[in-house]
């Protein structure tokens, strides 16, 4: 009997130990998980790397594996949203999120689109801003630097959040990232979290792909009431009860 092989999005790293702890009784040989940007993990599966269950920060990548015949099923299992992580000593904490992005002296960073879904969602936000304010949107696209999650991006140091590391190391002043990280930032980090209103949000839809039958049971557990409670406690948003398969947008 072999351990279950899981490839999981890096943004699940802080919640995954609780998932494994809750459901490891289903896998006596254990659950081995490797984390990384979901787009790059998908490429590894396409290159025939062993994987029983792929857990992605986007439904696009599991669906692509399903269509390519490299997965047996795919489904949505939770949601996430975006927020701004901002260097505290550079800004007025009372400033609104758009006011902060308008400050041209504040550097803005995102993850890398295509490789990391967080980057895709961040740039969808920039597209939405451009639709409402063409000048600001175009300026932000010129200013925003893609600093993590790419093929050649330096790895985030172990135990560090990408947003905190980028800001504390002086690489940026604002990072557009996942809201699920907000509760992990401590006051001593020198970083504040600024929420983005619902009407501007891009839903980050997390999906899985069962690549081998061994992954079925854990995949089912992710959508169970116990699994959903674990995700909500970690800052994600639960899904409503649904049948198998990723719904069309």
Automatic annotation (TrEMBL):
Q: Name one Pfam family in it.
A: SBP_bac_11
Q: Hey, what's the signal peptide range on this chain?
A: none
Q: Kindly give the InterPro entries that the UniProt entry links to this protein.
A: ModA/WtpA
Using the record for this protein, list the coiled-coil segments as residue ranges, or answer none. Answer: none
Q: What is this protein called?
A: Molybdenum ABC transporter substrate-binding protein
The species this protein belongs to is Erwinia sorbitola
Lineage, opening ranks: Bacteria, Pseudomonadati, Pseudomonadota, Gammaproteobacteria, Enterobacterales
